[in-house]
């Protein structure tokens, strides 16, 4: 209960627009016109709402360079979980025309495609995927069916452990490695998540090569400086990854 409460508080605190609203409320309370504060709030809102900000942050400062080696056949490729809309599946209120056993994926599906590709093409021997469970829903089962439908064999898929967080995945692979050493491991996750994921794997004594998906564009054009709702969401993701990295660093997991 305490962890859930703290998680909710953290989610609130990393919401970029929160501080705009706090500032506006402060203006109402003070009943004065502070030009510097108003200008600062406007500038802050503009910076976090243009695509240029999160794209440049992730692509130029936060990303981890790929170390994937195409000349190597990896013993396994591990793909980070959290690629489906678990809440939607738990609710289960699907329209009648949705096919049975259909899986609603998020943009995390890109890393599943990458993992399947490397195994199918012979660059890796096995796909490792954690069993993220939310109530009665097990994401890994849907991913397994999807991988099989795209040509992987049962023996090429290993649903290795129950996981809820990235640290659980790192510890799960560590336990798997302790039982049967994985000499060459390839870690796949999104570009924004890779720095934190790799740090956790390294903390467990693992030394995977990495391959990032969901890469942010470095292309700059006029629209890069126009505020959009999606840019606000991406800025929130910047706050999320920064806060997550700091939290786990202080907890000793990085």
From TrEMBL:
Pfam families under this entry? DUF218
* Gene3D superfamilies the UniProt entry points to: HUPs (3.40.50.620)
Per the record's keyword annotation, is Transmembrane included, yes or no?
yes
Domain annotation DUF218: ranges: 75-244
Look up keyword Transmembrane helix and say if it applies: yes
* One of the record's GO cellular component terms: plasma membrane
The alphabetized UniProt keywords are:
Membrane, Transmembrane, Transmembrane helix
Residue ranges annotated as transmembrane are 6-29, 36-53
In terms of superkingdom, the source organism counts as Bacteria
Protein name according to UniProt: Membrane protein containing DUF218
Q: Name its species.
A: Candidatus Magnetobacterium bavaricum
Higher taxonomy: Bacteria, Pseudomonadati, Nitrospirota, Thermodesulfovibrionia, Thermodesulfovibrionales
């Amino acid at each position: 209960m305490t962890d859930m409460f703290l998680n909710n508080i953290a989610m609130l605190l990393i919401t970029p627009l929160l501080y705009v609203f706090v500032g506006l409320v402060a203006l109402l309370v003070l009943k004065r016109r502070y030009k510097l504060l108003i200008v600062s709030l406007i500038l802050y809102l503009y910076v976090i709402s243009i695509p240029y900000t999160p794209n440049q942050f992730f692509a130029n400062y936060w990303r981890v360079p790929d170390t994937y080696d195409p000349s190597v056949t990896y013993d396994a490729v591990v793909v980070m979980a959290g690629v489906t809309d678990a809440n939607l599946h738990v609710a289960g209120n699907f329209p009648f025309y949705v096919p049975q056993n259909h899986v609603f994926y998020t943009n995390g599906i890109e890393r599943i495609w990458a993992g399947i590709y490397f195994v199918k093409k012979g660059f890796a021997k096995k796909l490792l995927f954690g069993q993220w469970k939310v109530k009665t829903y097990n994401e890994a089962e849907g991913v397994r069916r999807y991988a099989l439908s795209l040509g992987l064999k049962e023996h090429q898929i290993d649903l290795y452990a129950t996981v809820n967080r990235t640290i659980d995945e790192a510890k799960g692979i560590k336990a798997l490695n302790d039982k049967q050493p994985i000499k060459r491991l390839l870690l796949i996750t999104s570009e924004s998540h890779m720095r934190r994921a790799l740090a956790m794997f390294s903390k467990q004594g693992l030394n995977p090569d990495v391959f990032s998906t969901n890469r942010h564009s470095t292309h700059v054009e006029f629209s890069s400086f126009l505020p959009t709702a999606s840019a606000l969401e991406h800025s929130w993701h910047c706050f999320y990854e920064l806060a997550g990295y700091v939290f786990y660093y202080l907890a000793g997991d990085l």
